[in-house]
Amino acid sequence: MHNSLIASSYDLSSGTWDEMYTKDLKLRRQYETISNYLNNTSIEELSKKEELSKQLFIKEGVTFTVYNDSKGIEKIFPFDIIPRIITSEEWKKIEDGIKQRITALNLFIKDIYNEQFILKDEIIPAKLIYDCPYFLREMKGVTPPFDIYVHITGVDLIRNTDGEFYVLEDNLRTPSGVSYMLENREISKRIFPGILPKCSVLSVSDYPNILYEKLRLCSNQDNPNVVLLTPGIYNSAYFEHTTLARLMGIELVEGSDLVVKDHIVYMKTTFGLKRVDVIYRRVDDDFLDPMEFNANSVLGVAGIMSAYRKGNVTIVNAPGTGIADDKAVYTYVPDMIRYYLNEEPILKNIETYQLGRPEDLEYVKKNISKMVIKKTDGSGGYGMLMGHEATDEEISDYLKNVDKNPSAFIAQPILKLSTTPCFIDGQLTPRCIDLRPFAVYGPDGIEICPGGLTRVALKKGSLVVNSSQGGGSKDTWVIK
Q1: What b/e sequence results for 282-316 when a residue is b if at least 16 CB atoms lie within 10 Å of its CB, and e otherwise?
Q2: Is 329 within 8 Å of 131 (Cβ atoms)?
Q3: What are the structural domains of the chain?
Q4: Is the whole-model pTM more than 0.85?
Q5: Residue 188 and which of 17, 148, 330, 369 are 20 to 30 A apart at CA?
């Protein structure tokens, strides 16, 4: 397997940024070591490594749930063995950009639930906030410890044709995927022993320790009891909940394991009740407290919001943070950065049209074949319309829904996501990718794990990287 063979059969799409090769098929510097390794390894050997990675995922039980698949819902998460490599210079810009963004978003959430200066100064329309399903009136005037609302964030980035990283969306409610980042690295160590040190790849394995430290610091108690609250085994990210609880050395609990007495949260144990100080919750706002939100919820804890308001427990992330990752509010993040920090955004947004604006709606309808339309409160790649792939009938049906409530939708130009080599059917072939780095915000500042989850659209020509829509992932190497 020679480099010329890889390069000559590598089908670069015109106008697309490829992570490994320049447009004239010159190898990018950061890929030299892995490229040499691939040249000196037979296709049979690489196929064995691919098979080994599958076996390791099965053994570890690394699965996710697809809710709309009749063949069964548990799936092994597809993994591509060729790493995605980012240089330290590129990473520095990503890191600075994410820190800036999270700082502004945190200030925005604090402002929205308190003085609302940004609405009074008409930087953001008040209607947009009050119409948002994630705006929690129950959070008005509630101040979390150290004024931190977004402790854990997963920011989705894509690299466009100009080679620059753009923010696709901010995930501030219960961002998932970090267990796949950790698992992908463990698999890389097994299938490429010796190569990671040779490439000076920065470690991601410290993430659980960093997360635990930040969670611990978010409590006013000296030796706080931290727990992870899961909706239970039927949740799509249950594997991640168990993994993180185990790696942090904390209890994994469900709503029925907790009880509130005199505005204090306790965990039921065989030795009686034990006080809980910090809850890393993976339960959505709606199901958190049946006394305040969804009365039928059995996933949450009755009275937890009263304990939270009194400052007796820290909830991570704070309830109501979804106001800042709504897709309609996303368009205003660059304005927030200028407003709260008096700085220009380091990472750009993707141009976004709000269909509640008649002129935007008209423009999008005229250019629908170049647009992707999304629900403002959607996630997981569900409920989108990809204009270039949809039939006239699908477009017509989708637009009928849009016309019922245009402000519940946004549209963005269909972008050419950057591609990266994947090992598919015994050859290297480019596939579209995005990147979700994970940031943790504590009283001592924001820390971003060097790497993150690179998601891959495994279907040829597809732009949808979500695991629920047939995507997979690969290890992300940030090199010194």
Answers
A1: bbbbbbbbbebbeeebebbbbbbbbbbeeebbbbb
A2: no
A3: 1-350+415-480 (no CATH), 351-413 (3.30.1490.270)
A4: yes
A5: 17
